[in-house]
Amino acid sequence: MTSSAERRLGDKIVRELYRDPDYIDDAVLVEYVQDIWQPLLASARARGDLQPELDQRFAWEILMGRDRTINAFALPGGYFGLHLGLIGVVTSRDELASVLAHELSHVTQRHISRLISKQSAQTPWLIGAMILGALAASKNPEAANAMIVGGQAVAAQNQLNFSRDMEREADRTGFGVMTQAGFESRAFVTMFDKLQQSARLNDNGSFPYLRSHPLTTERIADMQARQPAGVSPSLSSGATLEHAMVAARARVLSNPGVDALRAWSADADSKNLAGVAAPRQAAALYGAVLAATRLRDFIQAEGLLGRLTELTRADARAARQTRLLAAELALTAGDARRASSMLAATATGRPDLFLWSQAAMRSGQANAAAQRLQTWVATHPRDAGAWQLLSVAHATQGQALRAIRADAEAKVIQMDYAAAAERLKAAQEQVRSAKPGAGVDHIEASIIDTRAREVQALLREQALER
Ligand SMILES: [Zn+2]
């Protein structure tokens, strides 16, 4: 399979995943994962594992799923899936890096295309449907049969499993990629331990990762043998306060039921909390503040936030996470002014910008929000979440045309061309029916005409692929 055919197949699959209700673009989690992912990509490039042609052709994009299951997987075309359940169980960023480096290596070593080539009798369309079916099956074993005709899901899962040789190669290449990127080598082994332990503790099918990447004694021994002499098995230096807080966020967001939120929120009440290590305290407090915020129990959340602020004061990265959480709490509680005052208007991070913009829109500063978001999308044109927020900012300003166009751009990025075309048509309709002297934004109107033509071309291309 050529790399461009594989990319088209991957596009087909993720087009559906973007519309999955479990797809989540949480600015804090996305930023944390990107801070691990980008160094891994750079390392793979520097080592020559990631060839320039593939680098350019493929997406190299991670989509996160709200699922509680412990899973990460590579898809055709350089797309990757990462479930919040996995972020929730790793104890350091290095452990997360070990899993991502392994998946990355399946793609750079062209394992996916080799698997698909074996299926050459099937059309790419059918392979795409099979992969989507297998993904649904890994989430919910009961629903799987309803999702896919003829019980193909199980067959697909078996046929698309990597061979032992591929697993070994992904381990070895991934190990090189992650250590060269500066992550701790022993995380590869502690991650294996963790997966084994968790699997022993609950064998309820929530470990699709192990089903698709069986942990053999050979794999474990291989990675242990690669550890430099004298490395102590003690707690990883990546087990930071910040990591513990982000993992707690993943756990809360993956389990948004009221009972679970109540349990999180009560977690920090435990009198024993003072005796445990700081990262565990930070995790319990962060999870409790977030859960209480979601339950709209703002008094409880404020009280716990005070303790978290105290605990994280001396650690700049952890203190920033506390500040973001405090702003999220203020915003949810309806105090937009206080939320925006907590976030430096000059902060360059995506979570800071997103929270600040939402706060600004709700406190009569939609113009400022639109300006900052406009600057952001100029340098991050593929950020669908930012376009979506920009659309809301324009709508709040009363700039209907710009709002519709920004919304259409978000749809284009997620490859929902039909929805984008519909939005742009509605915008053109508005321009046409505007009364003389209504002050139509002619520059915006001409951008919309151009984009409408381009999106129509993308739609035609998409129709031909069927
Ligand atoms: Zn694997």
Overview of the molecule:
By secondary structure, the chain is mainly alpha-helical. It is built from 25 helices and 3 strands. The chain has a 3-stranded mixed sheet, with helices on both faces. A hairpin with a 3-residue loop joins strand 2 and strand 3. The longest helix is centred in the C-terminal third of the chain and has 24 residues. The radius of gyration is 23 Å and the shape is globular. About 4% of the residues have low confidence. Zinc ion binds next to helix 5 and helix 10.
Structural class: mainly alpha
The helix-strand sequence is: HHHEEEHHHHHHHHHHHHHHHHHHHHHH
Q: Specify the helix fraction band.
A: 55-70%
Number of strands: 3
Number of helices: 25
Q: Give the radius of gyration.
A: 23 Å
Query: Main sheet?
Result: 3 strands, mixed
Order of strands, widest sheet: 1-3-2
Question: Could you say which overall geometry the principal axes of the C-alpha atoms support?
Answer: globular
Q: Give the end-to-end Cα distance, rounded to a whole number of Å.
A: 17 Å
Small ligands present = zinc ion
Q: Quote the beta fraction.
A: under 5%
Return residue spans where pLDDT drops below 50 for at least 5 consecutive residues.
141-157
> Please, what is the average pLDDT?
87
Quick recap of the structure?
By secondary structure, the protein is mainly α. The protein is built from 25 helices and three strands.
Could you give the topology of this structure?
Elements: H1 3-18, H2 27-47, H3 52-57, E1 61-65, E2 72-75, E3 79-83, H4 84-89, H5 93-108, H6 111-118, H7 124-139, H8 144-147, H9 152-159, H10 164-180, H11 186-201, H12 208-212, H13 217-225, H14 241-253, H15 258-267, H16 278-294, H17 298-312, H18 316-332, H19 336-342, H20 350-361, H21 366-379, H22 384-397, H23 400-413, H24 417-433, H25 442-465
Parallel strand pairs: 1-3
Antiparallel strand pairs: 2-3
Helix pairs in contact: 1-7, 2-5, 5-10, 5-11, 7-9, 14-16, 14-18, 15-16, 16-17, 16-18, 17-18, 18-19, 18-20, 19-20, 20-21, 20-22, 21-22, 22-23, 23-24, 23-25, 24-25
Bound molecules: zinc ion.
